[in-house]
Amino acid sequence: MKWAIPALILMLGLQGYGQAVDPVVMLDVNTRPASIGTSELAGFTSLPNARRQLIETALAVAWQSPWLPYLAGGADPDDGGFDCSGAMYFVMRKAGLDPPRSSGVQMEWLRKHGRLRVVAADARDLKHRSFSELKPGDLLFWAVSAHGGTIRVHHVAMYLGTEKKDGRPVMIGSTDGRSYRGQKANGYGVHDLRIPKAESPSKLIGYGTPPGIDVE
Q1: Which of 107, 63, 104, 65 is closest to 82 using CA atoms?
Q2: How far apart are CA 62 and CA 84, in angstroms?
Q3: Number of structural domains, the chain?
Q4: Confidence tier at 162 by pLDDT (50, 70, 90)
């Protein structure tokens, strides 16, 4: 399936789209997500200061907080957990940025600032040309098809880069079932970055650098 940009923009313009209304903790997976240090990320010290600070902030939230389970509507550790966009909202604000709250509008925020890079429908790994501009600290967006040929953005996370030990790409965010090295988990932490298979209804459709972070 090919994602039509006009349809994409139509869905992204809906304020708060993709967010649940009632805060309900998803407890179907009961393992705390992984945490890693910046010393485990390849090329971290060579990143520009603003990118390093953003990634350091994201990792510090995982290290310094108690277990933060996936919580629909959660956008602060004091809520008891995060949903995916709430986690990115909290991390970016803590790093001094001014993002919108929901995943769809976060993606539209990147588009309005010329930061959004669209992923081709045939991309199956990070070697695809679509990912030639992907950098640590970039936001990643997933979507599913909706009625009328439009799509619904349903997940956002932050790309951390690759691990030194084996070059595996990793990301950080809040989830109720994504995995790190084979272990599924619930909550905010580090997860493997995998590109969805062709038959998956969920597609990684775009990524980009948050406004406020220089694009090199």
Answers
A1: 65
A2: 14
A3: 1
A4: very high
Whether 33 shows a pLDDT value over 80: the answer reads yes
The answer, yes or no, to whether residue 101 has pLDDT greater than 60, is yes
In this structure, is residue 38 part of a structural domain? yes
* CATH number of the CATH domain containing 19: 3.90.1720.10
Domain extent for 30: 5-208
Q: What's the pTM?
A: 0.87
> Which residue type occupies 171?
M
Neighbours of 105 (CB within 10 A): 21
pLDDT of residue 2: 39
Confirm whether 214 is domain-assigned.
Answer: no
Instruction: Let me know if residue 213 belongs to a domain.
Output: no
Dihedral angle at the C-alpha atoms of 115, 119, 124, 127, nearest 10 degrees?
-50
How far, in Å, CA of 136 to CA of 61, rounded? 17
Answer yes or no: is 192 within a domain.
yes
Task: Kindly calculate the radius of gyration of the chain based on its CA atoms and give it in whole angstroms.
Answer: 16
What CA–CA distance (Å, rounded) separates 146 from 162?
A: 32
Phi, psi (degrees; rounded to nearest 5) at 164: -60, -40
Whether the Cβ atoms of residue 205 and residue 151 lie closer than 8 Å to each other: yes
The DSSP code for 101 is S
| Higher pLDDT, residue 112 or 22 | 112
